[in-house]
Write a structure and sequence with these properties.
Blueprint: H1 7-16, E1 22-26, H2 33-46, E2 54-58, H3 70-78, E3 87-92, H4 100-108, E4 113-119, H5 128-132, E5 137-141, H6 147-154, H7 160-170, H8 176-179, H9 183-206, H10 211-222, H11 231-240, H12 247-259, E6 263-270, E7 275-285, H13 288-294, H14 302-316, E8 320-326, E9 329-337, E10 340-346, H15 353-364, E11 372-376, E12 384-386, E13 389-393, H16 394-398
Parallel strand pairs: 1-4, 1-5, 2-3, 3-4, 6-8, 10-11, 11-13
Antiparallel strand pairs: 6-7, 8-9, 9-10, 12-13
Helix pairs in contact: 1-2, 3-4, 6-7, 7-13, 9-12, 11-12
């Protein structure tokens, strides 16, 4: 099987090797978590680790059904631990085992045991697990391929822009890069991912029986990326169609969709007041190929699609991302990390003078010295400077982490 080398994530695991922390890899299904384990296991073997030192379990594999009890899981692993050397324990889709945290915690405290787990639901790091393992785990959040990774694997055939258009339409689940020239199979594959997430990670976990209403909410959010959304607006829209759903139920379904990593919520941030705002956040989908299928390709607002791509890339680069509010104006993204803050505006094109003025205005009103960027698809003016605001071609920006 061909493995797409996810260098950034792989290096994180290598750096955390044998550190006294449980390594937790989270992310949407099929984003590459299991492949990351395979890559890392290969790396371990290249450094001299033997097969006997590696215990690898996938709790969605029927061969491990007998380990869906935390005591059985703990016993299975404990019986295979090496006494004289490190044992590396990998448990894939660990949330399938009720009370798994009890087994993981007990394994973690044993001598010479290095524990790695994956999960497809954010709830695995809440509640009892967070309490039990507080301060004893590090989370590595995985996303589908970045554009740089997509290009590295799929190639550009001398035309980066054509590859970028495919990236926008088909998305970047790792296997999609292999199927990029077979549209029928590609569509079936993405629909399969979506149906699995909806049933296993959302409906079953949250005990949701009204699947049609859940799907209505998914499609509403998919068609509204980059736009302010409220649960009441969704509730009113569904109720107007003849179905009945309360605002509280919509909020529960939306939380479940975010917990399954199919959507991400960006809250608003008051730039002047330096505080988060609780209302009218925006939602972004984990993969634009999913969105294309969910909207039947009918919602082709390139500006909002680009906004979605930039949002995900900022998350990959380790930023906490908010929507900026500045009086009555809006800044697409306020990106913060340990080193500071930066502001981003995204537009398909600013060749029109009025559009350029509109996009620059909110950034110009910000009276601090943090970096400000305008990202567009325009070929000309990339790298230009508007009184301290850098204009960069979005493809160049995606391929250059230092910008």
């Amino acid at each position: 099987m061909l493995l797409i080398r996810r260098t950034e994530y792989l290096n994180k695991l290598i750096n955390w090797r044998e550190k006294q922390l449980i390594k937790v890899i989270t992310g949407v299904r099929r984003c590459g978590k299991s492949t990351l384990f395979s890559l890392y296991i290969n790396h371990l073997k290249e450094t001299g680790v033997t097969d006997e030192q590696i215990i690898s379990i996938n709790l969605e594999d029927i061969n491990f059904d007998h380990l869906l009890d935390y005591k059985a899981l703990h016993t299975y692993v404990s019986d295979r631990l090496r006494k004289d050397k490190y044992t590396y324990v990998f448990i894939d889709e660990v949330q399938q085992c009720p009370d798994f945290e009890k087994a993981v915690d007990s394994l973690f405290i044993k001598k010479n045991v290095d524990v790695y787990i994956t999960g497809s639901n954010a709830c695995m790091l809440s509640g009892e697990l967070a309490t039990l393992l507080s301060g004893r785990y590090v989370e590595i959040r995985m996303l589908p391929l970045s554009f740089a990774e997509y290009l590295e694997f799929a190639g550009d055939n001398g035309n980066v822009r054509a590859s970028f258009n495919k990236f926008l339409k088909n998305g970047s689940f790792p296997y999609v890069a292999i199927l990029q020239n077979d549209n029928t199979v590609l569509r079936d594959y993405i629909e399969g991912i979506y149906n699995t997430i909806l049933v296993k990670d959302v409906a079953n976990r949250e005990k949701i029986t009204d699947i049609p209403v859940l799907e209505n909410i998914v499609k509403f959010l998919s068609g509204s990326i980059g736009s302010p959304i409220s649960a009441k607006k969704i509730s009113d829209t569904i109720n107007a169609s003849g179905r009945r759903i309360s605002v509280n139920t919509v909020e529960r379904y939306m939380r479940a969709l975010c917990n399954s990593f199919i959507f991400y919520k960006a809250d608003r941030f008051d730039i002047r007041g330096r505080q988060n705002l609780k209302t009218l956040g925006k939602y972004y989908i984990v993969d634009t190929g999913l969105r294309d299928i969910l909207t039947s390709g009918s919602s082709s607002d390139i500006g909002h699609i680009l906004e979605n791509i930039v949002y995900l890339e900022l998350l990959r680069r380790g930023y906490k991302v908010n929507i900026g509010k500045l009086d009555e104006k809006e800044v697409d993204f306020v990106a913060k990390d340990g080193d500071g803050m930066a502001y981003y505006q995204i537009s398909a094109s600013v060749l029109d003078e009025n559009t350029l003025k509109r996009e620059l205005e909110p950034l110009r009103k910000i009276d601090d010295n943090h970096p400000k960027f305008l990202l567009t698809l325009d070929e000309i003016m990339s790298g230009g400077n508007h009184n301290g605001i850098r204009q960069i071609n979005v493809i160049d920006w995606l391929l250059n982490e230092s910008s």
